[in-house]
Amino acid sequence: MTISPLVRFWNLIKPYKKPIRLIYYYAIISGVVNLSLPLGIQAIINYLQTGELTTSWIVLVAFVLTGIAISGKIQINQLRIVENIQQDIFAKSAFEFAYRIPKIKQINLDKVHAPELVNRFFDVLTIQKGLPKILIDFSMAAFQIVFGLVLLTFYSSYFIMLGISLILIIYLIFKITGPKGLETSIKESKYKYMLAHWLEEIASNTKTFKVLNKGNLHLNKTDDVNLHYLENREKHFKILIKQFVLFVGFKVWVAAGLLVLGGVLVFNQQMNIGQFVASEIIIIMIINSVEKITRIVETIYDVLTALDKIGHVTDLDLDEDNGVGELENSPNGVSIELNDLSFKYPNQENYVFENLSVKIKPKSKVWLKGNTGKGKSTLLNIIARIQTIENGHVLFNNRPSDYYSLESLHDQIGFISPNTGLFEGTIEENIMLNREIDPEQLKTVLDKLFLTDYISKLKKGINTKVDSRGRRMPKSTAQKIVLARYLVNNPSVLLLEDPLQFIDETEKKAIIDYIMDEQKSWTVIVVADYLYWADKANQIIKL
């Protein structure tokens, strides 16, 4: 079910009811205090008309100045409250993204480019910048309009109908133009992200576009997406202009109505000069508040659009985990059974494989073979419970995989695919991932993978920082570090796809001997073209 941006906004501020209520209390107080200015000036003018400098006049001046100071203090308090909310939203959003991204269902991740999806996090900054204007400026402007109109009614009952009609006009302006403005803002943002994604693609393939740039594909596609962005930006701008024109007309009507009505009341001696001057100050305050709301409208659109874009991440379904069992690391190993397994991708008619049934004994060393497109990679994803299935069952130690909790299952599975790589951090962080690993086991794995000598030559050793995807590191070394990540905790199951593709012949065979050693308790299923894997396997499965 699609959630509207407005509902998302209410959900965003729901946890902050108490501080927001305090902001509004301050706004009400500020609105009342600000009225001390026209009331004070009205009284001052009345005293000045007497031609005498009295103590009362000095008290009134002090009263007005005190009102201005109190209003300033209130705004400072409001800013502090909103700043706390902004910081909290940023921190919560960061953790929500970090928590959700690894848990998003694979079927959803297959439809998008995950790194590009994360760009939506920057919309949190848009929300941060927009909140002060919405919570403080907008609320204060709204309260000033209401209080100003209420105060005018004390001068004359004629102002009551005028005030009601003004509020009704503001409501109609938002009601008529608001939905269209939000729609165009969301479309504009869509092409903004498409453009950012394409620029990321250029950055990811710099050598391609550096060498093969004669056709200017990178510029042509940029121009195409940019054109769509500008078209939608122009549509959104026209809505803003339309709203601005309506607000300008509204201001003129307010000024004309109140000035004419005030003038008539003065001529008819139903209002004195002091009251007239005070009413004109109130009118100016109302007009300024309307202008402030006009400027805030675009910010409101930006915040609602940002919430819609963040929803592209937070609305994605997460992996279901109803399991309660613990898959233990036993020296007796783990058996795996595939029972009537059928799978097809949502956008395909044909099954990748159908009614597949296989039994794998504990400690087995399996070589999985098959032609391209037969589902070898998909099968590894299903066994690892990364890809969900609707038909068939995967069993570990004669229990369905969903009997076990995801955390327990994944803790006992070492899974390497072509997309498994290094992240920006130290070698130690890339291997350990904050897990408690036996130092002796770490030393053994580093020795077996021929990493000990390499690490010892580094100035900072295992604390040496590596780039994302191991960009400035030999591919063979990066591959060894990734493999070490999944061997150091001595898992029960190893699911490997081309784990040694870039490693030289001698080291490759030695590592295969270590992994496929029948004395090892782990169950291994490997997909690789290198035939030495098959030589060391004790079971071969063909898809």
Number of helices: 19
| Main sheet characteristics | 5 strands, parallel
State the secondary-structure class: alpha/beta
Euclidean distance between termini CA atoms = 38 Å
Question: What is the number of independent domains?
Answer: 2
Strand content: 5-15%
Question: At the first level of CATH, what is the class of the largest domain?
Answer: Mainly Alpha
CATH superfamily of the largest domain: ABC transporter type 1, transmembrane domain
Helix content: 55-70%
Kindly report the spatial arrangement of strands forming the biggest sheet: 6-9-10-3-11
CATH architecture of the largest domain: Up-down Bundle
Count of β-strands: 11
Mean pLDDT metric: 86
What would you say about this model in short?
One of its GO terms (cellular component) is plasma membrane. GO terms for molecular function: ABC-type oligopeptide transporter activity; ATP binding; ATP hydrolysis activity. This protein is of the alpha/beta class and 543 residues long.
Give a description of the structure.
The chain has 543 residues and is an alpha/beta fold. It has 2 domains: 5-314, ABC transporter type 1, transmembrane domain (ABC transporter transmembrane region fold, Up-down Bundle), CATH 1.20.1560.10; 336-542, Rossmann fold, CATH 3.40.50. It is built from 19 helices and 11 strands. The strands form 3 sheets. The chain has a 5-stranded parallel β-sheet, sandwiched between helices. Helix 18 (505-515) links the parallel strand 9 (493-497) and strand 10. Helix 8 (158-204) runs antiparallel to helix 10 (217-267). The radius of gyration is 34 Å and the shape is elongated. The mean pLDDT is 86. Keywords: Membrane, Transmembrane, Transmembrane helix. The chain crosses the membrane at residues 23-45, 57-76, 134-152, 158-174, 244-267.
